[in-house]
Design brief:
Blueprint lengths: L7 E5 L3 H12 L4 E5 L2 H10 L4 E5 L7 H11 L4 E6 L4 H9 L3 E6 L4 H72 L5 H20 L3 H17 L1
Parallel strand pairs: 1-2, 1-3, 3-4, 4-5
Helix pairs in contact: 5-6, 6-7
Length: about 230
Amino acid sequence: MDWLMKRKLLFISGYPEIIDEFQSVLEEKQIDMDIIRNGNDAMKMLHEKEYQVVVTDLNLEGCNGDKIISYVNQQFPDTICMLYTSSISTVQLGFYLNKRDVFRVFLRPMNFRQEFMQALEEAYELYDLKKHDRDSRQERLRQLERNRKAIAELERILEIQNKGWKEFEAFAGQLLGFTMERYGTAWSEKQRRAYVSEEKKILNEMCKKPDAISIARAQDQAEKMLVHR
């Protein structure tokens, strides 16, 4: 059973005879396990170490099994919980299976070598599936965050570029006045207005797509306008 290697399990029971039986079976499988005899010590272990599977009784000294399962559900949602007890009602069974997300419920005495070991194998398989799904979701979220940052950076760059071209457009508009003073002194008011209007159109078109071709075209059009005036 290679699936048992490098697995971590917490077993919680206050009954020495159950601990002995459980320990003798799982030691053969080389599982990394911790055996705790009361609920308070179990809670301390859960604060220190993350387990793939937790097996607990309900009736424990200190913190009871229900509180332990609830804590595991909240803090370690991938960890698989299994419960064993001497008696349980139908209502309780439904509660632990549906509300506390308990994977299996066993009644004492149980057969550790057969039924329990099969359930334990399935529990580890379920843990792997849950862990893989969670890791995949987290990777997708990280990728979305990377995409968001990349888009934000691109928008920042475009904003800087647009600001630069807006400043250039304003500067070019000022140059129109200089052009009029230098070359348009002999023009009529109608010619001056027509020139400014056409030149602004050329600048606007160039700023919409400020590449080398657009700039060269704008320069050529501006020169032709001056010549034909």
